[in-house]
Amino acid sequence: MKEFLGATLLSLVLAFAVTALLGPAFIKWLHKLKYGQEIREEGPAWHQKKSGTPTMGGIIFIVGIGVAVIINSIMLAINGNLTGAAMKAVVLFAVSLGFGAIGFVDDYIKVVKKRNLGLTAIQKFLLQVAFAAVYVVIMYCMDMLETDIVIPFVKYTLTIPLWLYIPFVMFVVVGVVNAVNLTDGLDGLASSVTVVAALFFAAYSFFRFSPAESGVSAYAMAIAGGLIGFLIYNKYPAKVFMGDTGSLFLGGAISLMAVDLNMHIYLILVGFIYFAETVSVILQTTYFKYTKKKYGEGRRIFKMSPLHHHFEMVGWKETKIVTVFTLVTLVMCAVAYFA
Length: 339
Description:
Elements: H1 2-33, H2 58-78, H3 83-111, H4 121-141, E1 148-151, E2 156-159, H5 162-183, H6 189-208, H7 215-234, H8 243-260, H9 267-270, H10 272-295, H11 307-313, H12 318-338
Antiparallel strand pairs: 1-2
Helix pairs in contact: 1-2, 1-7, 2-3, 2-7, 2-8, 3-4, 3-7, 3-8, 4-5, 5-8, 5-10, 6-7, 6-8, 6-12
């Protein structure tokens, strides 16, 4: 247990150190390549001053997390009893990297090819579904796939047939990936919220499962460490944005860890902010279309969506929104831990 705890903590330290050290050189390189973010006109007008800030910065913490996972997995694999945990961490990182690759292609098209919309919605959707399926297939082939779903508060475990479980996992993963992407709209917001979520999964996995089963713990700690290092450059005023490269990677990582721990439903609590951001967009779009059809003009529920933009429009500063949303995540994670 002591060896496993040490290796898990090392994941956080390594990911933080690599990310923090890599940041300045990588940001300078992005500036040199002129990979700056173009701010869309439909966002808050004051966001235009952020135009030109380097994007695709998610690569920085992905590298840090990758280094931590590889070194940690080697350490775990040395102890034969922890081979399963080491393999889980590698699989989780590899599939998360696939989602990051989708984001990278999207960023590349927008930033380098100067096509503002990047990949089409259907292209993103199909690629995300494909990587969700890849995860299920890998876990099935490794005999590590469980079709259990734990219901919070009642502590009831629901086991569903594989043919129903597979599309359910795809729905959960794709939904969370896009929800995290929507949350990445303010300096440090997605990073801060996801640090808390990652630490929750690290703690839950470590204290509720045996070391041989808790590969999630080491991976989650690596994510937390990488994001803390990234926040040095991503906090307000941001010197770099994570881009879709980072947000899709994080969405994949958070959703896959929840699936691995059979905590699909818990994501509503742990990812409450992700959920609220997504619901705000759905409600805004649906109500606008409904009122436009009925009254001839579209009406809005929020001043602007996603939700963080609504709070900006009512006068909240970015730092206040990030702080409040992070604290809400902390509270909801505490509720989820004891649910």
